[in-house]
Amino acid sequence: MNIDFTYQNPTTIYFGKNAIDNLSSELNNYGDTIMLAYGKGAIKKIGLYDQVISILEKNGKNIVELSGIMANPTYEKVMEGAKLVRENNVDLILAIGGGSVIDCAKAISVSAYCEGDAWTRYWIQYEPVDNKIVPVASILTLAGTGSEMNGGSVITNEEVKLKNGRVFPANVNPVFSILNPEYTFSLPTYQMVSGIFDMMSHLMEAYFSGEDDVTSDYLIEGLLRSIIHSAKIAVGNPTDYEARSNLMWSSTLAMNPIMGLSKTQDWEVHMIEHQLGAYTDCAHGMGLAAVSLPYYRFIYKYGLDKFVRFATQVWNVDTTGKSKDEVALEGIDAMEQFIKECGIVTNIKELGATEEMLPLIANSTVILGGYKVLTADEILAILKVAYTA
Amino acid sequence: MNIDFTYQNPTTIYFGKNAIDNLSSELNNYGDTIMLAYGKGAIKKIGLYDQVISILEKNGKNIVELSGIMANPTYEKVMEGAKLVRENNVDLILAIGGGSVIDCAKAISVSAYCEGDAWTRYWIQYEPVDNKIVPVASILTLAGTGSEMNGGSVITNEEVKLKNGRVFPANVNPVFSILNPEYTFSLPTYQMVSGIFDMMSHLMEAYFSGEDDVTSDYLIEGLLRSIIHSAKIAVGNPTDYEARSNLMWSSTLAMNPIMGLSKTQDWEVHMIEHQLGAYTDCAHGMGLAAVSLPYYRFIYKYGLDKFVRFATQVWNVDTTGKSKDEVALEGIDAMEQFIKECGIVTNIKELGATEEMLPLIANSTVILGGYKVLTADEILAILKVAYTA
Fold first, then answer.
1. What positions does the domain Fe-containing alcohol dehydrogenase-like C-terminal occupy (chains A, B) (predicted)?
2. Cα radius of gyration (chain A)
């Protein structure tokens, strides 16, 4: 672990079937005005909305509502929430939903009292937050992004067609998060498997980079194995509590700084997907899977030993009588087979991309890179493979 | 993950060669009087004592010293520190050393303002702490216990020959911990390998219990693999920074609630070792290793599938043509071979035990149990195997 690091994570996690029982006592720590932030009403169907409203009312809270937060939350929506926060003097933003809702809540938290344009300052110039931050808490209903226990916030600016993300310092993390795996039972399979690939991608972005020999690599392998194991069960039986709970907790860990400490990390797959998402509004995990396969087949030779390790430690590929290249590619093949078994879409045409979009996506993608720093032309070539997959 | 849990860990970790650079800015968050708590002077030999004194003086702090904290810190020492804290109105206890020093600092923290006898209230009756807690911070010089990022505090009461431990809630955790792997370079090999088995034992205590299918089990397997890998390098070359840094961070994680969430856990090996330690004052990790081998060989059949998984996932045991019992026992054999390669002592006679002590240890051991709840006679039988190993 040659790269020095600071690790801090103050989020309190309440996990399990009775996790909501902790909401009342947590509410005592904050002021009277709570903003409920949520999506398009799924939380009403599962009864969670009524339950939370009832708890807030019993605790004598004033409730402000921000509903209709979309899958790729827009900066326009952030500004709508920020205005509500200022007008009502909101003391706590309670986000109920998946990563999009929580990301949006964090964006509102840092933007409400920002002087100047928050988009430019916080998502383009990555300035430190120097204004008042409104505490965010979350009740998670969709596993995938890990936003419930990190400072990440990905926002789409539709005006300029940019989907930018950043990880804010830990004081922007949710102060507490309530994780009940049963809340994810009614989620459509499409979204469940999209979330599954999202968590796997978070781990691979950290894994395929830099030194190969740090403790974080071993943790990532373990967590990937756990996700693969539980995903197969959950795809067959979405109400298997054990599998869904493993996936929910794996998701929280997968996009948590603790899993990738002292790694340089890659994140090019996410950069390409962000632009794919900005143009197509596709499900994040589907976009990641579609990009990952051609991306890893393109870069594996630059990190050959790590891809061999990935094949053997994560996918149990037998190495007998095979070259390193064969083993590495078999590992990626095994991942492709798993992706297909889960019903994850890997063709970006199916995700809404058109041929005309491909150069626009390639040219607007941020270049980061792990084992290999790509050119825009190479990104275009990868997108073309994903388009004809 | 069928067992609901709450997870919270507010400790900030500064990790790496330059981690000490963060001490000054952290000191700003606390009052003027700092108690330095340390052991028998090893920190003076490596220059760390002078460096810390100089930083404290530059920050205008009043320094109170508590030195001579021993390997198994005594309640008497805790009382000495508690008196110093009260007399000097200490604002922060800065523990410099390994787990014993940090455990002792936490014990002083909760005991200084305790009404009544702290030993009885907090280590016998496990009462919640209802008095003022003095913040503790740490600078780690020995990897093994994980005390730098948890609420654990193991104290020996020599008067009644009891070594009792408990995990206090997260508000007793160190507020920050400074981890520079280079501080561990000058440690005698005996203590280094003792710490290595200590961290492995923490993971196995969580692993060999309850349901076999939770995310925590996969994380534990990954972390055990990392420890085994780095231990082999560190035993050959104690100043290999990469290996020592992996071991240091693995140690912090190994005894951290995050690794065993939703597991019932065992901890019988620790219970037996605590009494072995109370009678012999042996190095904790050595005692754990000596007890573990006969203990696991005795209980493996009650958790057979998990021991098979341990053998294959952690020790790469080939299963071809073997019965489950054979695979499970080969896994324990592989661990024994690793223990011997590291130079870890597995005979409790060598650790200071006498034949007369064995029934006293067995009869005073707390019975917990994972796959099998032992009787005092069974513990005695295990101790006898460890005595003639």
1. 193-387
2. 20
